[in-house]
Each structure stands twice: as structure tokens, then as C-alpha cells.
Amino acid sequence: MTARSWLSTSDMAKIVCGIATSHGPMLATPPDMWHLRGDADRKNPGHWYQGERLDYAALARKRAPGFAEQVTPTAMSANFDRCQRALDRLADHFAASRADLVLILGNDQREVFGEELTPAFTVFTGSEIENIPLSEEAVARLPPGIAIAEEGHCPPGGATYPGAPAHADAIVEALTVHEFDIATSERLPKLPGKQAGIPHAFGYVYRRIMRDTAPPSIPLFTNVGVGLNKPTAKRCLAFGHALKHAIDALPADLRVAVVASGGLTHFCIDEAMDQQVLRALSERDEPALAAIPEVMFNGNTSEIKSWLPLASIMNDASLPMRLVDYVPCYRTEAGTGNAMGFAVW
Predict the structure, then answer these.
(1) CA–CA distances in Å: residue 84 to residues 87, 199, 202, 218
(2) Is 4's pLDDT higher than 50?
(3) What gap in Å lies between CA 113 and CA 183, rounded to an integer?
(4) How many domains does the chain have?
(5) Across residues 273-298, what is the average pLDDT?
(6) Exposed, middle or buried: residue 23 (CB in 10 Å: 0-12, 13-18, 19+)?
(7) What pLDDT, on a 0 to 100 scale, did the predictor assign at position 1?
(8) Smaller CB count within 10 Å for the chain: N or C?
(9) Sign of the CA dihedral 92, 97, 101, 104?
(10) 137-175 exposure pattern, b = at least 16 Cβ within 10 A, e = fewer
(11) Among 286, 263, 285, 260, which residue's Cα sits nearest to residue 273?
(12) Tens-place pLDDT, residues 57-115
């Protein structure tokens, strides 16, 4: 018997909001500095676009006549401003929800987890969530255009946010009942050469969406893009359904928010794919999401998968999606950049 089959609505925790947001460094970088990442794109020998890996010259040929009109100072500044307005609306939506507990869905880009262990799904069960600034040496090793955005996901001096160990343990037990083999982490690993605190996908949510005032929260890691054990889109959707069962079994007076951090297509923007994903989310069309070929999620576009568990949670909760904005933020004529998406439920 599942949690939902014997719990009445009045016995369940209440999902009070859902939020999906991009978290790319361009959101915390002045647009007149976007060229730093653009210069790196031109040197990158391996851009993933529509399942194909291309160098910059081949990408430019494939996408001719290109996106010159999208990378003028005026266009980039306008896109940056649209993103900031959308983020303000997400933060206001979160504040109005008065959530007691937040589940944050995100990924780790080898910032915390290393080759020693790469779990497919991990639930953080600790009582404290540390957001620790990088050392000067670590900042110096960052790719061009990344260091300038560090304060977008970690405040100066760092921060510590409250975890929710009892609720996290309950979620792990419920996920196990629903046949998900979950890794747990009471303390994030501190490996040589790795980041010591929460990765940027989560830090950005604490900084920009929660405005550094966070209720107890549970980070949930999905390995969307590293190694061989990446969950498929179908499995990510199933993870959301199992999470909804787990949320239902939490205390009835609990107000729960769920935030997904990542996406959309990048570092090669594919507006057609983005619109396909956004349309399926809006129409609650999970089969359409599951049918996207896995090769389309290669590269950083894989972060779209962080949105998929949120989608199935909200579908089960019968909460409609509202798109706040979609802003393709180009930074080179070949169409590289980050497509930014912002949605609420």
C-alpha cells in the first residue's frame, strides 16, 4: 500500500509552490562581461549541439547565418535585465509561499563529488548546509568568466543554512520503499581540489531565490551529466513521482516548496528544444519529455533533467505551470550562450 493510497488529503503535507530556474553564471555577470565566456567558447573544441559534438568553426558553419543581432551590447543588456526581473518574480513567489520546508533539485558538476564516488541520486540528510567561498587558489583555476559570478551563488564570507535531517530521513525511507536506491550524505565530501560546500546549482537558489533567508531545506542531487550512471529522462520523471509519495507522508501541517535548478539548453542554445520542453511541461505531457532522445541531453543541456522530477511532482499535485519568462542569452555569433528559463507552479 502506498502513502497516497491510505492518506487523505488532510493528512498530507501541503505543496505550496514549485519553482524552476536557470542558474548560469551569465545571470550574475554584467552583460558587458559576457564576452569572457564567449572567448572561451571560441576556443572550446567540443560543443554539443543537437546530439553532435562540434568545434566552434563547425558550429558556426552549421548555424549560419548566425546570431550577430543577438550579441550586440543592446541585445545582451536587454536579455540580462529580463532575467533579473524574472528572478525577482520567482523570489517574490517563493517568499509568498511561506514554506516550512524546501526540497532543492540540482546537480553537481564534479564540484563536490569526485571520481571516487558518483551517485545517481543523493539526498542530503545533514543538519547544516554550508555555502563556502572558494579559496583564492581555486578561484584562479576557474575558467574565464566564471570567477566574476561567484557571488551569485555564495555570499562573501559564506553562509550556513538549516537542513532538515528528520524529514530527509523520512524521504529516503519512502524513496527506498518506491524502489529507488538512494545515496545519502550527512556531510558533503571534502576532497582535495574540490569545493568544500554546497555546489553552485544549490547555492544560487539560496542566494537569488531565497535571498539568503532559507527555511530548513533538503538538497537532492541528480547526476544528470557525469559518467555512465546518468538517469534517463524517464527515470528522472519517475523520481519525481516517488518524491511526491514521500512528501505526502510528511507531517500534515508542513508547507513544502520544491525548487529545481538548472537548464535550459547550453552552451549551444537550441530554442526549438527549449520550446519543446516548455510546451510539454505546460501541457503535463510526461511521455513527450520521456521521448526526447538521450543524446539531446549531452553536455550542460543535461541540466534540464533537474526540472523533470519537479514536473512530475507538480503533475501529481495538480498544480499548473506558469512560464514567467524564457530568455535565450546568446554570447557569440555561433549561437553559444545559455537559454534561461523561469517558471512557477
Answers:
(1) 5, 21, 18, 26
(2) no
(3) 12
(4) 1
(5) 98
(6) buried
(7) 37
(8) N
(9) negative
(10) eeeeeeeebbbbbbebbbeeeebebebbbebbebbbebb
(11) 263
(12) 999 999 999 999 999 999 999 999 999 999 999 999 999 999 999 999 999 988 888 88
Of the candidates 177, 323, 166, the one whose C-alpha atom is nearest the C-alpha of residue 246 is 177
Q: How far is CA 82 from CA 24, 79, 85, 290, 340, in A?
A: 14, 5, 5, 30, 10
At residue 259, φ and ψ (nearest 5 deg) are -125, 130
The DSSP element (H or E) to which 5 belongs, if any, is helix 3-6
Quick check: 116 pLDDT over 90?
A: no
Q: Residue 338 and residue 57: Cα distance in Å, rounded?
A: 19
Residue-wise pLDDT tens digits, 12-32: 899 999 999 999 999 999 999
Rounded Cα distance between 345 and 341, Å, is 14
* pLDDT tens-digit series, residues 166-200: 999 999 999 999 999 999 999 988 877 777 889 99
Cell numbers for 265, please give them: 539548453
pTM of the model: 0.95
Q: Which residues pair with 275 in a beta bridge?
A: none
DSSP letter assigned to residue 177 = H
Domain that holds residue 259: 3-344
Q: What are phi and psi of 179, to 5 degrees?
A: 65, 35
Cell of residue 257, nine digits? 516548496
